[in-house]
From TrEMBL:
Domain of life: Bacteria
Record organism: Fodinibius salipaludis
Name listed for the protein in its UniProt record: Methyltransferase domain-containing protein
CDD domains registered for this protein in UniProt: AdoMet_MTases (cd02440)
InterPro entries: SAM-dependent_MTases_sf
Amino acid sequence: MSTLAYLKSFFKDKDVASVTPTSRFCVHTVCQPIDFSQDITIVEYGAGAGVFAHYLLDQMTSNSQLYLFETNEILFKKLQQIEDPRTMFYDQSVEYVTEWLPEDIIGQVDFIISGIPFSFLDAEVKSSVLDQSFKLLRDGGEFLAYQTSGHLEDPLRDTFGNVKTSWEWRNIPPMTVYEAVKR
């Protein structure tokens, strides 16, 4: 994916947290819990130019679904170049994610992948996004996130009652990777 698109977005949009696309190492670390042999539904927050989307679509079954959210106009245009019938695009904020997604997938999502910079959100919005994420997931569904620091651990534990963290150093910048399961 284009580092130039990320650089332009970083300087024009206060909500873009990185100057480079996520590394393949970070993508693999974040996606490690996903069983791609099953039909799955994935929602991605902050899909950028599609680094995760391309990887996911290459792995997913033909009956799986991928819902992508990206508010940055430059990155959204790049994202929309993906031509795959399993993919739905939203240039909307995940602050209202349960209002945008089809009603029939509420409580049925297998995985949510999030790269949005939660540290940029105020406590109320952060809590709302996590609460809506919990509502979107099926029992056993997982919230998978990557952030530049460990700030998301307590909010995830408050919402999900559990969280695992790991590090991916082979990314610029290095990332804290989170995994929380809806139980």
